[in-house]
Amino acid sequence: MHVKDETINILKQFDIANKFSHLPVLPKASVLIPLFVKDGELHTWMTLRSKELRTSAGEVCFPGGKRGPDDRDDVATALREAEEEIGLAPEKVQVVCTLFPVISKSGLLVTPVVGFIEESFRPHPNPAEVSAVFTVPLDFFTSKKDHYATHGTAGMVGLLHSFYFVDPDSGNQYHIWGLTAMFAIVVAVLSLRKKPEFDIGFDTDDPLSFFQHVLHKHISKL
């Protein structure tokens, strides 16, 4: 089976659908994790946010943002934001699934949306929001070589993951950490069916239980 088809079949098993629709009303956001196959390997696109932005300025993120008044769901938010930020047209994305939401350090309920795009896609970043766009092999997020983790960070439950990635095309080094790193690890673990070389703090065979626990712990404090 082709890498793309196999990955889609795996990820669909973890689609949360409306599983968390019962949660109390929280400000919502979503991100798009755009996967593509290059030389038989899975990769993803990531962005470096503009230093002029009010929140998370200069940080590495997946394309995404807060839900807009006209967004019908998390998928619509992720697709709209990806088009606004990097010029990725919604019709060019084959949406695969939505994964477990996580409450961010700013109190947003952030839902990752995973989709496949063509390898031929070339981004057109919006300079008001994005200062750089780059690709990362998905298995990078399972290697301990450039990975670091800390415990007990304020506002975080579990480990705070951190990676330093050098883009071979530009030579630029990017610091990928926090929620973005966690989402990347989760998608890598699920897609590649591969346990990382470092502790991730949850059962790779049953990740949903961990994220449900984290969500309920956060919500109980609201």
Automatic annotation (TrEMBL):
This enzyme's EC code(s): 3.6.1.77
PANTHER family with a match to the protein in the record: NUDIX HYDROLASE (PTHR12992), PEROXISOMAL COENZYME A DIPHOSPHATASE NUDT7 (PTHR12992:SF24)
Ranges of residues in domain Nudix hydrolase: 26-161
Pfam families for the chain: NUDIX
GO terms under biological process: coenzyme A catabolic process
Catalysed reactions listed for this entry: tetradecanoyl-CoA + H2O = tetradecanoyl-4'-phosphopantetheine + adenosine 3',5'-bisphosphate + 2 H(+); decanoyl-CoA + H2O = decanoyl-4'-phosphopantetheine + adenosine 3',5'-bisphosphate + 2 H(+); succinyl-CoA + H2O = succinyl-4'-phosphopantetheine + adenosine 3',5'-bisphosphate + 2 H(+); dodecanoyl-CoA + H2O = S-dodecanoyl-4'-phosphopantetheine + adenosine 3',5'-bisphosphate + 2 H(+)
GO cellular component terms given for this protein: peroxisomal matrix
Protein name: Peroxisomal coenzyme A diphosphatase NUDT7
Cofactor entry: Mn(2+); Mg(2+)
GO MF annotations, alphabetized: coenzyme A diphosphatase activity; metal ion binding; RNA binding
Subunit structure: Monomer.
Domain of life, source organism: Eukaryota
Known role: Fatty acyl-coenzyme A (CoA) diphosphatase that hydrolyzes fatty acyl-CoA to yield acyl-4'-phosphopantetheine and adenosine 3',5'-bisphosphate. Cleaves CoA, CoA esters and oxidized CoA with similar efficiencies. Preferentially hydrolyzes medium-chain acyl-CoAs and bile acid-CoAs. Has no activity toward NDP-sugars, CDP-alcohols, (deoxy)nucleoside 5'-triphosphates, nucleoside 5'-di or monophosphates, diadenosine polyphosphates, NAD, NADH, NADP, NADPH or thymidine-5'-monophospho-p-nitrophenyl ester.
Cellular localisation: Peroxisome
First-level EC class: hydrolase
Family: Belongs to the Nudix hydrolase family. PCD1 subfamily.
Gene3D superfamilies, sorted: Nucleoside Triphosphate Pyrophosphohydrolase
Transmembrane segments: 174-192
Keywords for the protein's UniProt record, in alphabetical order: Hydrolase, Magnesium, Manganese, Membrane, Metal-binding, Peroxisome, RNA-binding, Transmembrane, Transmembrane helix
